Amino acid sequence: MKLRELAERIGGRISGDPDIEITGVSGINDAGHGDITYFAEKKYLQNILSSNASAVIAKEEIAGLSGGERPAPMSVLIVDNPQYAFARALEVFYAAPAGLSGISDKAVIGSNVSMGGDISVHPFAFIGNNTALGRRVTVSTGVFIGENVSIGDGTFIYPNVTIRENVTIGRNVIIHPGTVIGSDGFGYVLEKGAHYKIPHVGGVIIEDDVEIGANVTIDRATVGNTIIGCGTKIDNLVQVGHNVRIGKNCIIVAAVAIAGSVEIGDWVILAGQVGVRDHIKIGSKAVVSGQSGVMTDVPEGEIYSGKPAIPHKTWMRAQSIFSKLPEYIQRLKELEKRSGRPD
Amino acid sequence: MKLRELAERIGGRISGDPDIEITGVSGINDAGHGDITYFAEKKYLQNILSSNASAVIAKEEIAGLSGGERPAPMSVLIVDNPQYAFARALEVFYAAPAGLSGISDKAVIGSNVSMGGDISVHPFAFIGNNTALGRRVTVSTGVFIGENVSIGDGTFIYPNVTIRENVTIGRNVIIHPGTVIGSDGFGYVLEKGAHYKIPHVGGVIIEDDVEIGANVTIDRATVGNTIIGCGTKIDNLVQVGHNVRIGKNCIIVAAVAIAGSVEIGDWVILAGQVGVRDHIKIGSKAVVSGQSGVMTDVPEGEIYSGKPAIPHKTWMRAQSIFSKLPEYIQRLKELEKRSGRPD
Amino acid sequence: MKLRELAERIGGRISGDPDIEITGVSGINDAGHGDITYFAEKKYLQNILSSNASAVIAKEEIAGLSGGERPAPMSVLIVDNPQYAFARALEVFYAAPAGLSGISDKAVIGSNVSMGGDISVHPFAFIGNNTALGRRVTVSTGVFIGENVSIGDGTFIYPNVTIRENVTIGRNVIIHPGTVIGSDGFGYVLEKGAHYKIPHVGGVIIEDDVEIGANVTIDRATVGNTIIGCGTKIDNLVQVGHNVRIGKNCIIVAAVAIAGSVEIGDWVILAGQVGVRDHIKIGSKAVVSGQSGVMTDVPEGEIYSGKPAIPHKTWMRAQSIFSKLPEYIQRLKELEKRSGRPD
Q1: Cα separations (Å) of B313 from B304, B317, C279?
Q2: Angstrom distances, CA of residue A152 to CA of A44, A102, A206, A227, C183
Q3: Please, what's the b/e burial string for A245-263 (b: 16 or more CB within 10 A of its CB; e: otherwise)?
């Protein structure tokens, strides 16, 4: 494909040779002859200048920079959002594997199941009674879907996922392998010297455009619903407790654990391995840094760090002292000595 | 169902109208007309007073409080343990889905498998040779059970669980989807410049009334058994290493990781994301707070926090200083200046 | 089996009775009459001296110690590496369960699948098109293998594993149940007010002799490959992000989370629950202690601890002060008082 043709499909203005042949898409360090790569951060300028790529996707000012006094070593496709154009280029060059289509006779499908057009149900999938699948839904090998589940158009469920009863999943949702949706919440009450199990009779609602990683667990509500808001993306091995409500367009990174009844606003970012105590509220656009332990509410727009999590700047100032504590304590002792304190 | 009838089934004394109709059970904030809810913590008194619930489950003194000078806005079902009565009410109103019964002809069942009455084995389940299943056992879709496994009466195994050979599971155990029991422990010995795998020929014993969350991993012992004691409850995504022994009625919250050969007493609580080093002993009734790293033994009844975990009170006092370190260091420097230290 | 015969099979020199009958292998505390156990750490000398084991595997000097003034209470098999000899003894006494052999007619196998000899494919396994399986490969129940996957000789895949398309797995690899290999990396770019998914068109390469625990997740690369080097061992519930490169013979303990594009050298040890930020480099033979958060590169051979992770000795010195902070702050305040600071 000529660079000119690629530009027609993904947008952008060409600086250089529009007829150069593009045969693949590659990362900045691995790109070779025929590849198009992308350049979004100035710190990688040297990598671009020494790259063998045939073309690079970049913002205008970057193209100007390397194309000015020092000529750009390759053609440049100038776009507003290089990373987005890179994603689009990947789509152009690499089609997803076709996979199986149609409904396998090795799947088990319950009664009163409604299905839209272009559905794929793979071998060894199980679909419970009274379930509604929209159009272009894929239910992969080894997936279990319980009763009274609804799945919207275009949703893709990877192998060995378990979705229990009374779960509602929106449109264009992606659920990666091994994930469990609708497991019982972790709730007991002490009675007669034993932990008595509190029934979890609620459900789970996954809104449109959510993506859920591999081996994630999302518990059903005690009553009501655990809710994952529209456009939210969840990485692998994340735990979402019962009755949690996550807003829209959040980013929940791998190995985060969210306890029961937590409320999270929109556009929140929880970095890897963060833990959130039960009943906490995290305001919209808040960010919690990796491995932090959230034990109090986080206000809207704030960045929190540490365990317990506190405002990031406060944490940074305190943490920067931590490794120097031995020196400061030594200085304290010297002061004491000079002031005549008996040691 | 009239409140009177509910009281007959779950116990309690009615203050108010025993003939009021109860049509559902709900949380304190979502309860509407026809719902019964519960009230266990005084901080939620205002929520109850403004609730539209038709009835509330509460302790006597609470009923008196709101029914005294200020009349209770709804009927009250007076019980000793409101949360327990709430759990019972959920059971009355919401039956678990019936699920499939009988043994699917799409399951594979090995030789010399004994089964008690009322067993359910769902499609695509696999049961190995020389396995014994008690009465009322459910083996869901996609479950793998290896050879020489024993499962007690009333145990429920959710979809896509893997139970390897030589595992013994007691009565009324619940195992949530995606969980793995009896994987090899993580043990190697360095020999000739490579990690040589130590065979794990032991087993796992899960005692009665244990509940194990989704996507949990419980490794088999090198020799002997990894043991989960009677009544212990394990949340999602927990790792239990080889030869670990957990006592009775423990609570192990999500994302805890317990290394090999750890010994945990009875009634221990490990909060979310706790890590426990290998060969550690944690005494009965000890509590470890979330994200702590247990690197030394924890005595019976103690509360530990931090990494490394230390007594909670000590940790709290030290941690309360952490965010003020910059201020204290500033004060130290001022003292030095006044005492003439060259900066 | 006589001790003499065991020594012939696993090596070593006998001190004591070569004709004593050995009927099993056991840990140091559980060993009874007929058992052989092993002794590798001096702190367990008393346990050996009071053991009922019929024989013990030990290093020469240890045998000398207990066989000198104080006679060894049992026969000793003298070897260079007792733990290795113990592993070999376990292999001699405990054969792995034979499992199913051959290709089940309840498996689904795609087109253009090549298979070496002695392959086992169990019921409800699914093998995609254009896949190559070497000799003595086992594909267990409920395993999904996508298209264009290659699996080397002697590799064992436990139940309910998901391996997506374009994954290359070497020889003698072990993959424990529930693990997911080749899930999409976690990558989005903000475009028009939404998270736009970056396609992940790369693959995963698992080299020879790798072992991967249960419920692990290893994401595929955006472009190129995520790589797990030869001989590396990964424990349960570990997350490996897209484009990560792990070297040879590393030990990655349970619940570690490694973000995208991290580069890890050879012989690295990441202890339990460690988190590693994206694009970090960890040099060969480095060690990171449990629960640490790696936010800067770790040089070759260094030991790092804490969050953010710093050299272990620095962390230890600072951490040893942490619990005494209240006392030091008190002493600071006393100094201030004596120096006349207004409080």
Answers
A1: 8, 6, 38
A2: 41, 17, 10, 15, 22
A3: bbbbbbbbbbbbbbbbbbb
Catalytic residue numbers of C, as ranges: 242
When the pLDDT of each residue in chain B is averaged and rounded to a whole number, the result is 93
Nearest-Cα residue of chain B relative to residue C140: B144
Q: Which CATH class is domain A102-316?
A: mainly beta
Neighbours of chain A (3+ CB pairs under 8 A): B, C
- Does residue C325 have a pLDDT over 70? yes
* Cβ-Cβ contacts under 8 Å for A51 (sequence gap 6 or more): A28, A29, A31, A37, A73, A74
For residue B242, the chain C residues in CB contact (below 8 A) are: none
Report the C-alpha gap between A125 and C120 in whole angstroms.
22
Which chain A positions have a beta carbon within 8 Å of B123's beta carbon? 108, 126
Cα separation, B284 vs B291, whole angstroms: 20
- Which residues of B fall within a CB distance of 8 Å from C12? none
Angle at C247 between CA A273 and CA B197, to 5 degrees: 90
Query: Strand B303-305 and strand B310-311: pairing?
Result: antiparallel
CA distance C287 to C293: 12
Contact between A59 and A82 under an 8 Å Cβ cutoff? The reply is yes
Helices (H) and strands (E) in chain A, counts: 6, 38
Spacing of C-alpha B242 from chain mean position: 20
Output the pLDDT for position A72. Answer: 61
B192 CB-near residues (< 8 Å, 6+ apart): none
Whether pLDDT at A325 is above 80: yes
- Report the residue of chain A nearest B35, measured CA to CA: A223
- What is the rounded CA–CA span in Å between residue A215 and residue A160? 10
Q: What 8-state DSSP symbol labels residue A21?
A: B
**Torsion sign over Cα A67, A73, A78, A83:** negative
Largest CA distance in chain C: 89
What CATH number does the domain located at B3-93 have? 3.40.1390.10
Residue B46 neighbours by CB under 8 Å, 6+ apart: none
| Angle formed by the axes of helices B325-338 and B312-322, nearest 10° | 70
Nearest of C218, C225, C212, B158 to residue A213 by alpha carbon: C218
Query: C324 vs B317: CB contact, 8 Å cut-off?
Result: no
- DSSP-derived pairing of the beta strands C188-191 and C194-197: antiparallel
Pairing of strands C269-270, C287-288: parallel
Q: pLDDT tens, B220-238?
A: 999 999 999 999 999 999 9
* Minimal-distance CA residue of chain C relative to A143: C142
Q: Rounded to an integer, what is the distance from CA B62 to the centroid of its chain?
A: 29
- Domain residue extents for chain B: 3-93, 102-316
Residues in chain C: 343
C-alpha to C-alpha distance for C284 and C304, rounded to whole angstroms: 13
User: Would you call A242 a catalytic residue per the annotation?
Assistant: yes
Question: Complex ipTM, two decimals?
Answer: 0.94
Using CB atoms, which residue from A93, A96, A323 is nearest to C318? Answer: A323
For residue range C61-119, what is the model confidence (pLDDT) as tens digits? 665 555 444 556 789 999 999 999 999 999 999 977 777 789 999 999 999 999 999 99
